[in-house]
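re the bet — no i am not wrong, look at it urself. input seq straight from the record:
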Amino acid sequence: MRLAIVRKESCFPDKCGNLCAKLCPINRKGEDCIKIQGEKASISESLCIGCGICQNRCPFGAISIINLPRELDKRVVHRYGDNGFVLYNLPMPRKNSVLGLLGKNGIGKSTAIKILSNKLKPNLGEKKATDKEIHEYFKGSELLDYFKHIEKRIVAIKPQDILELQKYNGTVKELIRKMGEKQTSQVFKDLGIEKLMDKELAKLSGGELQKVAIAIASLRESDVYFFDEPLAYLDIGERIKVSNFIRNLVGDGKEVVVIDHDILLLDYMADFVNIMYGKPSCYGIISSIKATKNAINSYLQGYLKEDNLRFRDKPIKFDLSVQKKKSPYSLFEWPEFTKDFKGFSLNVPAGKVSSKSIVGIAGRNATGKTTFVKCMAGIIETDQKNIKTKLKISYKPQYIEREPDQTVAEVIKHEKISKRLMSLLSIEGLLFRKLSQLSGGELQKVAIAACLAKEADVYLIDEPSAHLDVEERLQAARAIEEKVKEHDCSVFVVDHDLLFLAYLADTLIMFSGEPSKHGTSSQPVDIKEGMNAFMKLLDITVRKEEETGRPRINKPGSVVDREQREKNKWFMQ
C-alpha cells in the first residue's frame, strides 16, 4: 500500500515551476500522476510507482511517498482528503481509569481526541462515512458500543491551545458563569486558582490559563474527560498537583484521556497508555493498549514486542548514572545581587560555573528564574548594577516573538544557522514557511537553533522543552551537548521537565520562595546533589526503573517511597 502525502502549507508550484510534475516518469509517459490543482500539487496514489523522484527533488520538502503493509488499509479511521494525513486505529477510553496517549507531534493524537469527543466524524479513509459503515467497521471491538452511543456521551475537553482563552473579554469568574459550569470552591482550591477568580483572562500567565482551562473542563459533569497537554506552562510542583487532580476525576464509571510529552508525569498519572507512531504530518498508527510502565519502556525502545515491530531505528536512553564531564576552570562568575519589582523581590547569592558546563535551573513559576537569566543576559539590571562581563551572551527567551512575514530561511540566513544544527533539530523542512505559520514546537526549534548558532561564551535558554515532544526534546538536548563539547562555553537551561534537566545538566540551580512575592536561588551544585535536594523540597521520591534506567515517581506512602525517605535518598539513589 502506498501513501502519497502533500503538505499543502509547504507546497509552492509557482516558485519551483511545477518541478515534481515535470520530473515524474508517469507524467512523462503522458498520464496525470502529478498535477497542479488549486495552486498545489496533487498526486494519484493509484498511478504512483513509488520511484521517490518527486519526494527527493521537491525543494520545499512538501512531498512524502510512503510504502506501508497492505493490511493497514483495513484499519484507516480517518483521512484528511486526498494526499492528506491518515490515522490508523483508535484508542479506547476505560472506565475508572486514566488513559495516556504518547507519541510525536503531528502524529494524530489531537485527531483521535476530536473523533472520540464527537467533534470530528471518522470517514474511514473516504470522503464520508455513514453511521452504519462506522458501526460495521468497529464490529467486534469495544469501540462499537462507544460509537453506537457517542451522541449521548457527555464529554469535556481541555484543548491544547489555551491561549485562545485570552481573547475572552472578562474575568475568570465571568467565563465560568457564561459557560454554565457549576462553581465548586474545592476544584479552585485543588488547582490553586482561588485568587484568580476576579482577574482578567487577558492578563493571566500561561500557567494560570492552563489551570483555569483544566478547571473549566473538570467542572462539567461528564462521562469522558479529555486533556490535551495539561502540563504545558506549569512548573514541576503544579504538574504534580494537576496530575493528582486528574487522577482523582476517575471513579463512578468516569473515563479520562490525557495527551502529554512529560513522560515522568504521564507515567505517574496514567493507568494505561496507547503508543502512537508513524511519520509526523503523514500518518499515525495507534498501538494496542498497554500498562503504563510497559508502554513507556516500549516507546523509549522504539519496539513493540507483541507485534515484532520496530518504529524507531535507535532506542531513546536516559542513563542518568553517567558521570558528566566539565572543565575544571571557571568561565562565568556573578556577584551576590537582588532585584526588586513592585510586589516581588529576588535574592541571588554569588556563584560561578565552569567552562563546558550545562547548568539546569529549576523551581516554581514566578520565583525569579526568568528574571535571573535576564539579569545574566544584561536585559535588565540588578539593583546593585553589579553584573559586568566581557563575555558574549546568547539568549533564547521563554516567550518567542514572531515576525509574521519572515520565513525560516531568512532566519537561517540572518543567524547563520549551520546545516548540522538544522539537521540536529530537524528544521530543514521548514525553510519556506513563514514564522506565523509554524506550530509552537516548530517555532521553538527554530528559536533554539538561532540561539545556539550565535558565537557566544554563555548561552541562556529559557524553557526549550515547551511544545516539544519526547524525541524533539532529546534532539534539543543533543544540540546543546554538541555546542558545549565543541566550544569553550557554558549553557544555562531553565525548564520544568525534570527528566530533560536530569538527562542534560551536570549542575543545578534551584529557586524557592513564594510565587509572585519573593524568590531565592541556590548556588550551583552537582546535578545529583541538587536533584536530591529539589525532590525533598517538592516532597516526592523518585526511583530508577530497572529495565531502562529512567526515573519514576514513587506513589506517596508506598514501600519504596518510605524507604527512600528514611535514607534521605529522594532522587534515584
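see?? The chain is about 30% helix and 20% strand. told u. also The chain has a mean pLDDT of 93. so pay up
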